[in-house]
Amino acid sequence: MAILKVCGIETEYGIVTRGFDVSPVTSSSMLINAYAGSMRQKIGWDFLDEHPSVDARGTVTETSFPPEIETHLVNAVLTNGARYYVDHAHPEVSTPECLTPRDVVLYDRAAEEIILRSIASVNALLPDGQEIGTFKNNSDGKGNSYGCHENYLVSRELAFGRLASHITTHFVTRQIYCGAGKVGSENGAPDVPFQISQRADFFEEEVGLETTVKRPIVNTRDEPHCDPLKYRRLHVIVGDANMSEVATFLKVGTTALILAMIEDDQFPDWLTLRHPVAHIRSVSHDISLTSTCELQDGRTMSALEIQEQLLGLCQRYVHRYGDPTSGDADEILREWESVLDCLKNNPEDAADRVDWIAKRRVLEGFALRHGVSPLSAQLRAIDLQYHDMRLDKCLALRVGLRTLVSIEDVHRAVTNPPPDTRAYFRGTCLARWPQNIVAANWDSIVIDTGDEILRRIPMMEPLKGTRAIVGELLTAVNSVEDLLLSLGSADTPGWDPLMTPEPGW
Asked: In terms of CATH architecture, what is 7-410?
């Protein structure tokens, strides 16, 4: 039986300086430090459990390049359970673990708000004429791409080979409703005036460990950040960063449903692609949505037709097996069916949900009014401005995109963790005892009580440490010393053997 799809998003933001010249690493560090400076105490990231070179296939070839662990760059853990850090040359926010796709949307929006507050903080410190800006996009137009990565909890019992071969079909074709759109092409791809996805040109392998070179459609990093005997974490690097909340909801929600269907062995073998690397580009380059993909059995279908097949399969799966998304399945299926109907009959009707269609409408209107060529500098600038995080400049805020979460809920999510995953325990501890938390990561926190030995509290179960399990305990204790004593007692409400404190470093 498929397990609940705990999930989250990591977004790398494009960054630019105006009026002064420093490296992107420096400007990213300035941005994050300006935000972290408002916290009672900046809690650093614990790298003890980081193992990005572990490959789900069991081997690493000489041509594999796992991502480096950059322990020297700025890393902060936030009270909402998220991580805010410099990744290579970008500021990145990883949402806390979320139980539902709708919560992923909420905490992805909270990440945007954190970026906005960071911009305001750092620019207030800079001299007149200098500022730092950020963009929620995936390409700088100069051959460099940066990611929006998703993460999903999957059962360890699922063979990785079957997982990879089946989920690839969805990753190649889902871009028709969750692509962010882009003027032109990059990375040696054929010239096109406009395409569906910002990332499609940068994928060169079907399966692999890399994330920055020779990018694979399915990433093989085997780093579950929880009990490795029970779980996998599917690390997804193939998606665009979305400005549309509905697109984010569909991106995460449809993927969660299909992963559950694969776990329960309900995904048909015939619905797999013969040439996925070629097709991920051809689908992105065809805004008419009529180009076809060749399946393993020789049949050809368009991306839209494949998505209609996947929708029908998921509708039958949810009816038979239930909801693996903790309550969002019905809404996911309704939105999925609605957007596919729009794409089939009149794509313009999806402009309130699909980023690439909303962006294309703006670009075509400008080109028509001003008589500019499809690949002009003006259109490239408009493309970038769609993703500008400045509220007075962001075009995505002006095109009528539907929203799913309120701004009040977003503001609460900036500082408060989800109540129904272990992020609740992490975030609450950070908020109450920042002076005692030495470091934290996804599956543990390290506590200093003033003794010679630091204490590590492991959190190996993503659905333990919730408000329902430890809320009363955290309210009852007044200090980290009391917390450690209570967690060490089997008679304590909320006690769990996987959260028993153990000696730290």
From this structure: 2-Layer Sandwich (3.30)
